[in-house]
């Protein structure tokens, strides 16, 4: 072992998750305290405990190891990424929990993985002839991340030995005069370039210059004209959507590595690019629940469909890392506000509350599909949750303020640590936040030097009031949502009233006519199961003002919920007042339909807004009119009149991910003298679902008029046809297709059909 490795091993004694860096040209402004000195209780503490005792402890070890024991082409291309993600999540969770069973399992899995490493250092799942194709580098990335995190919490030198061998194999295989790293990964090379992060971790722990040189080669390669040009594009445009193919998970993984290379190399362009990405995401790309991406890509501002490929959990994990790293480096607390929104909403919403499953995508309405299988997001969820403890308490890094502690996240918790000035610090937070405004912080020290205590006041705290040892603190002492006080001598008791309030978030673009309710950082959602005693609860609407809603937070057993005044629509169209239960988005949709968006009674549409609003649209052929048919508006339509003649035409809406629904409304587009409708002389148009691989016919549009190729009969522009899907055909599906025979009108050499909407609804009140 070289001297530097011995030094690092000493610095990374168990409990110090974050290895002290060998050298830093750009020191962090802040860093987390070791996770082992933090204990989190309350709502978040319970979810962290479930993450440990649920998915992490229950993960099938053999399923993780098998792809490495039997390498070869007969397995999925990225099957090997899961073990590294598990090792990383379990190491971080062990660093926080000190759970002995977790440690024992960690040792078994890490040992099992290392035992499959080939003599030349290869630790992928591919056959010899397929090496470095597909996702092979990506798999090595996660193996290095997982084993280095494991090494940091256990000091097991076998792990860093395995990572050195992987690092050397990569260095010897890829480079300016060797194989091209960009060609060995998907998404313009962004996937393979993300090995940057563990290569830098390896450099920090070994001080071997060749790893740093390799890291610089990777970033230089990404800036080539044929590369994704992440840094230069972000510096030019400050727009993540303009970077390569806008694939979020891979891009963010690269940016996280670049932040670290900035620390080591001092190259400010890397930091500016990362900051530009963070700013663009926070300003333009987020759901109100803090999640990001539709279809796994960054989208145009305002394009945030509510169902389907919503907020990939891998992106949630990457955002957690980005917010954490940017705050550490710059000390900017706006990342903490975004992280808090993400944690309390989209992150906890992807975890089934019992901690046994994770959802791949987490929609804003519909049904959540939780799973426990080897899927990218299913492995990323526990890892994203495992980051939370490192965000609660931070410490300023540089003298003379390194003895200043920041309460970064409000929440029931305790910190007990010894600061660099040898002062013992104990900080307790007692609160039901985010369900309550009141927080009591007790801070003590043993010694006369003391320490500075800062409290970050959450963005949702509108007019906070603070008293210290019973004495109110003047409001002008609060600067930039941060409050500072010196802890010395006698214990300090701080009472904070955050004055959280209910807030209405009005829906825009596709969600016009809808609104969401927020208390503090948490968004509350309608949950059908929680309202099973309210007949017709799904057909409910609300008066969109806080006085009429009169929301009240109550706790039943362990479940927090909001009771609000609503109205149930009766068969005759009248409204009957009813009390409706809303659950935190994070707890909603566990058993049945849920919706973050609530209907404003003044703008209520009898059928509501299609679950599939703003999703992808496809047609059998492109015609002269290409308006949207997934926008809830009959003002736009699509047709297929390209001058050719076809036997069949179809229109299709595609959410990309399974959703339950039972009612379809097809709206005809516009008939012209040369066609634009379905000819029903040989049969009515049909509705098809796509669930997995095949389309299944589920119903016919029997109400469609008896038309011919020449005559549209009684059909009117925008006419709606409502079809209830038969019970035995109601499988969750992700695509709905309407297909039929196109009509020719007065020009028999061609034909066409048209469609102004395909709307998709879930209505539990239909037969
Ligand atoms: Zn994923």
Write the layout of secondary structure elements.
Blueprint: H1 3-11, E1 30-32, E2 38-40, H2 42-58, H3 61-69, H4 81-97, H5 100-114, H6 136-154, H7 157-173, H8 190-193, H9 196-206, H10 209-222, H11 230-237, H12 248-265, H13 268-285, H14 313-330, H15 334-350, E3 358-359, E4 365-366, E5 370-371, H16 376-387, H17 389-392, E6 393-396, E7 404-407, E8 413-418, E9 424-431, E10 438-446, E11 451-456, E12 465-468, E13 471-472, E14 482-487, E15 492-497, E16 502-506, E17 514-519, E18 522-527, E19 540-541, H18 546-549, E20 552-556, E21 559-569, E22 575-584, E23 594-595, E24 598-599, E25 616-619, E26 638-639, E27 649-659, E28 663-668, E29 678-679, E30 686-690, E31 695-700, E32 720-724, E33 733-742, E34 754-761
Helix pairs in contact: 2-4, 3-5, 4-5, 4-6, 4-16, 6-7, 6-9, 9-10, 9-12, 11-13, 12-13, 12-14, 14-15, 14-16
Helix content: 25-40%
The structure class reads alpha+beta
**How many helical elements?**
18
Which molecules other than protein and nucleic acid are bound? zinc ion
Low-confidence stretches: 1-22
- Average pLDDT, rounded to a whole number, is 93
Q: Can you summarize the main beta sheet?
A: 10 strands, antiparallel
Terminal CA distance reads: 72 Å
Cα gyration radius (Å): 28 Å
**Spatial shape:** globular
Strand segment tally: 34
């Amino acid at each position: 072992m070289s001297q530097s490795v011995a030094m690092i091993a000493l610095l990374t004694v168990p409990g110090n998750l974050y290895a002290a860096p060998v050298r830093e040209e750009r020191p962090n402004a802040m860093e987390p305290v070791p996770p082992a000195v933090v204990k989190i209780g309350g709502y978040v503490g319970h979810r962290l405990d479930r993450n440990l005792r649920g998915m992490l402890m229950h993960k099938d070890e053999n399923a993780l190891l098998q792809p490495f024991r039997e390498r070869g082409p007969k397995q999925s291309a990225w099957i090997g990424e899961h073990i590294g993600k598990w090792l990383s999540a379990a190491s971080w969770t062990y660093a926080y929990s000190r759970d002995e069973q977790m440690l024992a399992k960690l040792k078994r899995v890490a040992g099992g993985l290392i035992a499959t490493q080939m003599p030349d250092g290869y630790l992928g799942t591919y056959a010899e002839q397929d090496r470095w194709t597909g996702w092979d580098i990506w798999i090595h990335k996660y193996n290095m991340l997982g084993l280095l995190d494991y090494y940091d919490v256990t000091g097991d030198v076998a792990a860093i030995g395995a990572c050195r061998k992987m690092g050397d194999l990569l260095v010897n295989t890829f480079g300016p005069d060797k194989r091209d790293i960009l060609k060995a990964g998907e998404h313009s090379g962004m996937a393979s370039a993300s090995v940057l992060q563990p290569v830098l971790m390896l450099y920090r722990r070994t001080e071997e210059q060749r790893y740093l040189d390799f890291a610089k080669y990777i970033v230089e390669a990404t800036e080539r004209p044929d590369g994704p040009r992440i840094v230069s594009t972000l510096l030019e445009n400050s727009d993540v959507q303009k970077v390569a193919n806008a694939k979020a998970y891979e891009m963010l993984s690269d940016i996280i590595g670049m932040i670290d290379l900035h620390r080591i190399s001092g190259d400010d362009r890397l930091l500016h690019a990362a900051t530009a990405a963070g700013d663009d995401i926070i300003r333009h790309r987020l759901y109100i629940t803090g999640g990001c991406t539709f279809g796994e890509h960054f989208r145009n501002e305002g394009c945030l469909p509510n169902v389907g490929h919503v907020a990939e959990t891998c992106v949630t994990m990457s955002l957690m890392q980005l917010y954490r790293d940017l705050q550490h480096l710059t000390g900017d607390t706006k990342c903490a506000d975004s992280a808090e929104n993400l944690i309390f909403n989209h992150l906890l919403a992807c975890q089934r509350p019992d901690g046994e499953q994770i959802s791949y995508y987490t929609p804003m309405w519909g049904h959540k599909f939780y799973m426990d299988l080897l899927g990218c997001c299913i492995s990323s969820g526990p890892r994203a949750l495992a980051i939370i403890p490192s965000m609660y308490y931070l410490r300023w890094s540089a003298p003379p303020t390194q003895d200043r502690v920041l309460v970064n996240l409000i929440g029931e918790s305790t910190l007990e640590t010894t600061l660099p000035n040898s002062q013992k610090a104990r900080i307790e937070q007692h609160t039901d936040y985010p369900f309550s405004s009141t927080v009591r912080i007790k801070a003590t020290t043993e010694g006369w030097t003391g320490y500075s205590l800062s409290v970050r006041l959450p963005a949702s705290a509108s007019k906070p009031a603070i008293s210290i040892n019973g004495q109110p603190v003047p409001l002008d002492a609060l600067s930039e949502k941060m409050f500072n006080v010196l802890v010395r001598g006698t214990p300090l008791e701080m009472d904070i009233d955050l004055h959280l309030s209910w807030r209405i978030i009005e829906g825009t673009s596709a969600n016009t006519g809808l609104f969401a309710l927020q208390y503090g950082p948490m968004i509350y959602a309608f949950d059908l199961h929680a309202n099973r005693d309210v007949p017709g609860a799904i057909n409910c609407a609300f008066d969109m003002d806080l006085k009429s809603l009169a929301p009240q937070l109550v706790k039943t057993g362990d479940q927090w919920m909001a009771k609000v005044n609503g109205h149930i629509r009766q068969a005759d169209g009248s409204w009957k007042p009813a009390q409706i239960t809303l659950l935190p988005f994070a707890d909603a949709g566990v058993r049945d339909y849920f919706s973050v968006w609530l209907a404003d009674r003044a703008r209520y549409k009898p059928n509501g807004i299609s679950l599939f609003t703003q999703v992808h649209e496809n047609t059998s052929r492109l015609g002269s009119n290409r308006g949207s048919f997934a926008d809830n508006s009959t003002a736009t339509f699509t047709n297929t009149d390209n001058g050719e003649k076809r036997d069949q035409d179809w229109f299709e809406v595609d959410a990309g991910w399974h959703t339950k629904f039972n009612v379809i409304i097809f709206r005809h587009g516009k008939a012209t003298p040369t066609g634009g409708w379905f000819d029903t002389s040989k049969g009515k148009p049909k509705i098809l679902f796509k669930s997995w691989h095949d389309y299944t016919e589920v119903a016919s549009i029997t109400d469609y008029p008896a038309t011919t190729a020449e005559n549209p009969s009684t059909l009117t522009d925008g006419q709606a046809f409502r079809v209830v899907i038969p019970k035995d055909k109601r499988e969750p599906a992700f695509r709905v297709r309407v297909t039929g025979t196109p009509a020719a009108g007065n020009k028999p050499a061609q034909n066409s059909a048209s469609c102004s909407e395909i709307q998709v609804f879930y209505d539990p009140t239909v037969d």
